[in-house]
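Sequence, please.
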């Protein structure tokens, strides 16, 4: 029973780390949505209305970023759009990994190194999620959204 508990704990930690880095990709839309919610609440809207505004503004931010990234063909502008979304993902990955590392080990150099690795993973997760929008995937990746679009065509 103890062994089963340890195995399930390892899987649970792995699942939550996967979930954390998957959701770190959406750091910018979440941040913009939270700012809109706080602004709406400050201007007299209720908690429920502010939450609805946050969801709408966050979704619009994500959609606008994806449409701009797919529409713009100038590499420098595309890099700027990608950096706008990847930088908050890197910061979220850094702080998430630093928090997990501080739970598991004392505050030392190793936890800082692990946090920087988490920042790189957070930025890479954002880069990976937008690679299909660039058009250079061509359905080569089995988990890519382009592959499902290519099957339908």
């Amino acid at each position: 029973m103890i062994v089963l508990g340890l195995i399930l704990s390892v899987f649970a930690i792995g699942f939550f780390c996967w979930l954390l880095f998957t959701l770190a990709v959406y750091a910018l839309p979440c941040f913009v949505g939270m700012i809109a919610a706080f602004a709406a609440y400050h201007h007299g809207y209720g908690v429920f209305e502010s939450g609805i505004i946050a969801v709408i503004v966050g979704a619009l931010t994500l959609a606008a970023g994806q449409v701009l990234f797919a529409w713009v063909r100038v590499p420098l502008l595309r890099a700027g759009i990608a950096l706008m979304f990847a930088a908050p993902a890197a910061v979220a990955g850094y702080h998430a990994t630093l928090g997990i590392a501080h739970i598991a080990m004392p505050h030392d150099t190793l936890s800082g190194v692990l946090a920087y690795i988490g920042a790189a993973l957070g930025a890479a997760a954002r880069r990976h999620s937008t690679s299909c929008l660039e058009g250079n995937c061509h359905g080569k990746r089995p988990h890519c959204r382009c592959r499902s679009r290519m099957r339908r065509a």
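Residues 74-153 form one domain.
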